[in-house]
Each structure stands twice: as structure tokens, then as C-alpha cells.
Design a protein that fits this description.
Layout (H helix, E strand, L loop, with lengths): L4 H6 L2 E9 L2 E12 L3 H9 L4 H4 L3 E3 L6 E4 L4 E8 L3 E8 L2 E11 L5 E9 L3 H7 L2 H20 L5 H6 L4 H20 L4 H15 L4
Antiparallel strand pairs: 1-2, 2-8, 3-4, 4-5, 5-6, 6-7, 7-8
Helix pairs in contact: 4-8, 5-7, 7-8
Length: 211
């Protein structure tokens, strides 16, 4: 699965925010990327149960407002808002924890579509200090990359190839660069630079199976 690591890393704008959610302080990671296709195509790719496995993971459930979904081997949750083809909000339930994912699509003047993803979570301070935003940010970078590849080529994820890729040199390079970029976003949000770099290093080691 050859990809352009620098191209894909550079295609995403990353931001880290703090805000209140449900009356409690929350950490928010924001990833934004533009795709060279119409908004209806992007919307279909992220909501159609037949297309989602082509770039992400197999999914089951009742994929409509108020319904529940389950990504096989990963998170499940409830669809809490759905305004085709612009806005989707879901709960993200995994490992006994709940967080929230909001996706917004915007038509650009050149015919492309901008995707903005927010992952909102109540993260314990010690866990945040250990891994920082890259703990979920790297995973979303991988998903955004997979979506872009699917939208541009129509290619489908090969499960065996996808499972092996993180252990490849290219995969390891992607994990490191993604972790570093989320570390820079954390610094821009006010985190001590040394602490953010240390957290990024631990995130890299985790994703590469070295921790």
C-alpha cells in the first residue's frame, strides 16, 4: 500500500482545543482536510454502510438518526445528529468510555469538499500528559488518509495489507510524523514544548508497537 507520507501528513490541518462539554472540561482534537470531489460523494462515503468498509472498517447497525452503529473491532455508539450532506454527530463508545465525534462538510468554491472532524473527550490529566492529542489524532489521520485514497482512486482497503502496513517502514514513518504534528498542535494550544514532544514520542512508540 504505497502512499505519499509527506503528502498525506501535509494535507491535514490539526488543532487542539479545550472546552466544556456536558458541563465538564473536555479536550478536543480537530482535523481538517479538503478532498477533490463533490460534497455528496464525501457524504456518501462516510455514511453509506456499503462504502465505509472500503476505506475504514466493517460496520453494522441502524445507520440513521437515533440509531446505533458498531465498527467491527472498534468503537460503537449512537447517531445523535444527521443533516445530509453537511453534518454528522455520533457518540464514540469504546473500552467502557464515551466521547463524541462531530463531522462537518463544506463545499468549496473550486468544487472540492472540506471535511472538519472534532473528537471531544473527557480525558484524565495523567493520560493526556502521557500521550497528548496523538492518542486519538494518529488514528484519525489514518482514517482521513484512507478516505482520501478511496475518494481519489476508488480503491478498497485490503484487510491483510492494511494490517501489515503499520509495521512497514512507510507505516512507521507515517506514525512518527503524525505523532509529531499532533505534538506541534499541542504546543500551539499552550502545552509546554518539551512535555508535548515527550508525549508525542510515547504515542509513536504505542502505535508502532514499541512501548
Amino acid at each position: 500500500m504505497k502512499i505519499g507520507v509527506l503528502r498525506d501528513i501535509g494535507a491535514v490541518t490539526r488543532e487542539v482545543q479545550n472546552r466544556d462539554h456536558d458541563g465538564r472540561p473536555a479536550r478536543v482534537i480537530v482535523a481538517t482536510c479538503a478532498y477533490d470531489t463533490a460534497i455528496d460523494d464525501v457524504w456518501d462515503a462516510i455514511t453509506n454502510a456499503e462504502r465505509i468498509p472500503r476505506w475504514f472498517l466493517p460496520i453494522s447497525g441502524d445507520l440513521r438518526l437515533g440509531g446505533r452503529y458498531q465498527l467491527h473491532g472498534n468503537a460503537g455508539g449512537q447517531i445523535t445528529a444527521c443533516e445530509p450532506p453537511r453534518s454528522l454527530e455520533v457518540t464514540w463508545e469504546f473500552g467502557g468510555q464515551i466521547s463524541w465525534v462531530h463531522v462537518r462538510l463544506t463545499e468549496l468554491s473550486d468544487g472540492r469538499t472540506r471535511l472538519r472532524l472534532e473528537h471531544i473527550a473527557h480525558v484524565p490529566d495523567d493520560l493526556w500528559k502521557q500521550y497528548g492529542p496523538g492518542a486519538v489524532g494518529v488514528g484519525w489521520d489514518l482514517a482521513i488518509m484512507g478516505l482520501g485514497r478511496h475518494l481519489s482512486t476508488g480503491a478498497e482497503v485490503d484487510p491483510k495489507e492494511a494490517a501489515a502496513w503499520p509495521a512497514s517502514e512507510e507505516g512507521k514513518d507515517f506514525m512518527r510524523r503524525s505523532s509529531e504534528e499532533w505534538g506541534r498542535a499541542s504546543i500551539a494550544a499552550g502545552t509546554d514544548a518539551a512535555a508535548a514532544r515527550d508525549a508525542a514520542s510515547r504515542t509513536t512508540a504505542f502505535y508502532r508497537g514499541e512501548s
